Amino acid sequence: MPPLCLTARYRPAQHFPVQHHQEALLPAVHLMQILPCVLLQSFIGHAVSHRASDGIVARFHSATEAKRQKEAFIKQFKEGVIPEDIPDVRLTAGPDGLLIANLLKEAQLTQSTSDAMRMIKQGAVKIDGSRVEDAKLTIAKGTTAVFQVGKRRFAKVSVQ
3-state DSSP call for residue 118? Predict the structure, then answer.
């Protein structure tokens, strides 16, 4: 049997219905929609997305609130400054103090002590800006410090 393109009765619609063509083109169409956004962002950085987020915040709140939120975001995530509105947590320790993993769990900075140990091993835990490397660190009574887990979770913890 000769190939379809050489036969006189070849009808593309008969051999390849239109719906199959459309389904085959969907990934290409999706890529064509996404690619300009990716290229644009790689060329001009995040300026466009920052402008869009400013517009959204300004629409629902105010322009001054949008500016304040943008500055807070840049300080926290680009410059690593501790946010001003972190929760104060007071914990009670035994006579020997409180293990760091238990402290992080009780201060609700991690879901569990296992999660706290994992975060310490990954280097994601800081006390007053200093990275914690010892997973068996004991925090003594009378200690007050800012504990950080990752980039987003902070708490000022007082151990009593």
Answer: helix
**C-beta separation of 124 from 132 below 8 A:** no
Structural domains in the chain plus CATH codes:
13-78 (no CATH), 88-159 (3.10.290.10)
- Find tokens 């466009």 and name the residue: 48
- Give Cα 87 to chain centroid, integer Å: 20
Please check whether residue 64 is in contact with residue 131, taking contact to mean a CB–CB distance below 8 angstroms.
no
Q: What is the pTM of this model?
A: 0.62
**How does pLDDT run across 78-113, given as a tens digit for each residue?**
787 888 889 999 999 999 999 999 999 999 999 999
CA-nearest of 158, 18, 24 to 97 is: 158
